[in-house]
Write a structure and sequence with these properties.
heterodimer; A: mainly alpha; two-stranded antiparallel sheet; 4% strand; B: alpha+beta; 5-stranded antiparallel β-sheet; 8 helices; 14 strands; elongated
Chain lengths: 282, 275
């Protein structure tokens, strides 16, 4: 039991680092920027008013949410069946594939993004092929387009999502499927009546985690957006690095934080209403 | 089919579980409801329909799994070690219940079990399977009294197996030799020659005083190695020239001491020859 005391110091350290920096940063959202990184002494809601007044801020805000949502949905469509199939493979084979996916998620984000830039850069072979096949317009640019950022997001999302969904799917016993099949359910009906409801709570929480991650995704958006796709994290970074406006940056971060938090609460609430048996499976 | 782990759908209520197959077979809603109610009545759990599987006990889950399996009135029911996860007392109670239900419903049932007494208790016919191969099919009585292989003999109940040589025939019996004794045994169904095993159940052997003659019986001389008193039986290990023989004797008022020289006797009709 005494050993339990040992966790107190890392716990304290984490709490101080996390909440301390968060508090200091977010508190500057209530101070007007004076330029050159200086803030006014007195408290005001000036920064938040700016966000509401200038359409570019709101546009960026909704772009972030929309992009995250679309990528989240698209990733889910790909990874849900993929994870299900992986979980039903022979253990050695599934461990091999999951291991490969795990390894790919360890690759750092800038490298992933730069890889995509090289692959789909302005004069890249892949883009030439796509152009000559008529799949994209002649003046299509991958880097700096919303599509490019979306692909970058999806690239980082799929690995994480497969890992989360794999454990969700693996927790559903195979015997339940056998039972459904034996009692007359077709393959499709088995998926619909057994796998979907049993994986729903896990799917919801995995999707939420991914969505939260994507709203804060910054590296892919910066590198693949080429400064043209201004999601909130990019905007916050620009406000700080380029303009030294800590106040507005903090206000944007606060808005993002509160919105994402509220969306999460809402989804969890909605999910618990939808699936009264969530607690049973969890 | 009834699964070893029951495989009840955790997200569906007991009624929905039992009605699962009926819904897949497109029964009308009213028909499903009445059939489910009937089945809940049958398994003597009429009030649990609205509960979830986690909210009922293991024995109840077992019964629900059974009800779900028979809901659509299958022609053949497969039960894969259905009582394996239950504790001994509950298992015995469920055996009784399953036997009654099965007899009442008259559904041909294939019942997989490792428990030989469960197999004897529930079945009309038993197939003993070794490494995926059927070793013998027969009634419990046949399997126990006339096993056709060493595996079956040793798997079902206790049996002594003594290495021996098959040397000939004597009327209705086979004659075998082991070390310095000649024994008679029931003729095997299979044609056997030369090296074989003689098998005899512990409870068919009598322990008598050395040199008691009984011409019609098989006899082996030996020495008592150990004795364990177990209430209604005395488990005696007797060392003979060919093997250590287990005997289930009736406890007597004046027990023999360990090491006492004795003679074992049993009927040729209780003796088997196995390969």
């Amino acid at each position: 039991m005494r050993w339990g005391l040992l966790v107190i110091s890392p716990l304290l350290l984490t709490t101080i680092l996390l909440s301390g920096s968060l508090f200091i940063f977010l508190s500057s959202s209530f101070h007007e920027d004076l330029g050159l990184g200086l803030l006014k002494e007195e408290y005001s809601l000036y920064n938040f008013r700016q966000i509401l007044v200038y359409p570019s801020y709101l546009e960026s805000f909704f772009l972030t949410l929309r992009l995250s949502l679309y990528v989240c949905i698209f990733t889910l469509i790909i990874t849900w069946p993929l994870s299900y199939i992986l979980s039903r493979l022979p253990p050695k084979l599934s461990m091999l594939f999951v291991g490969l996916i795990l390894a790919s998620t360890f690759i750092s984000l800038p490298i992933k993004a730069l890889g995509l830039i090289i692959l789909f850069g302005t004069d890249s072979f892949a883009l030439d092929v796509l152009r000559s096949l008529g799949l994209v317009d002649q003046d299509f640019r991958f880097v700096g387009s919303l599509f490019g950022v979306g692909v970058g997001y999806t690239h980082l999302a799929i690995g994480l999502m497969v890992m989360m969904m794999f454990s969700v799917m693996q927790a559903i016993p195979k015997s339940l499927e056998d039972a459904a099949r034996i009692h007359g359910a077709s393959w499709g009906r088995t998926i619909w009546r057994v796998i979907v409801p049993l994986s729903l709570p896990g799917t919801i929480s995995a999707s939420l985690m991914l969505f939260n991650l994507l709203t804060g995704a910054f590296v892919s958006a910066t590198l693949l957006g080429g400064g043209k796709i201004l999601t909130l994290p990019v905007l916050i970074q620009q406000s700080i690095i380029l303009f030294n406006e800590y106040g507005i940056a903090a206000a944007l971060a606060a808005v993002l934080l509160v919105t994402v938090f509220a969306l999460n609460l809402l989804s969890v609430f909605a999910a618990s209403r939808l699936t009264p048996t969530t607690k049973v499976i969890a | 089919m009834v699964f070893q782990d029951y495989a009840l759908f955790p997200h569906l209520t007991i009624s929905e579980n039992i009605g699962f197959g009926l819904k897949e077979h497109r029964y009308a809603r009213a028909a499903i409801d009445s059939r489910v109610a009937e089945l809940l009545e049958l398994i003597k759990l009429p009030h649990i329909g609205k509960r979830l599987p986690v909210e009922i006990s293991g024995g109840q889950q077992q019964r629900v799994a059974f009800a779900r399996a028979i809901a659509h009135t299958p022609q053949i029911l497969l039960m894969d070690e259905p009582l394996g996860a239950l504790d001994l007392k509950l298992r015995e109670a469920m055996q009784l219940e399953l036997r009654e239900l099965q007899r009442a419903l008259g559904i041909t049932t294939v019942y997989v079990t490792h428990d030989q007494s469960e197999a004897m208790y529930l079945s009309d016919r038993i197939a003993v399977i070794n490494n995926g191969q059927i070793e013998q099919v027969g009634t419990g009585r046949e399997i126990y009294d006339r096993p056709t292989s060493r595996f079956v003999a040793e798997f079902v109940g206790q049996i002594n197996v003594i290495p021996a040589d098959l040397v000939g025939e004597d009327g209705d019996y086979s004659v075998v030799k082991c070390e310095n004794a000649t024994l008679r045994a029931v003729k095997p169904r299979k044609q056997l020659q030369g090296e074989a095993y003689v098998a005899v159940r512990p409870h068919t052997i009598d322990i008598v005083q050395r040199d008691t003659q009984a011409a019609a019986k098989n006899s082996l001389d030996g020495r008592i190695l150990s004795q364990v008193f177990n209430g209604n039986v005395l488990h005696v290990q007797v060392e003979t020239a060919s093997a250590i023989i287990s005997v289930e004797a009736r406890p007597s008022a004046d027990p023999l001491p360990d090491g006492a020289p004795v003679t074992l006797q049993w009927k040729p009709s209780d003796t088997l020859v196995l390969d």
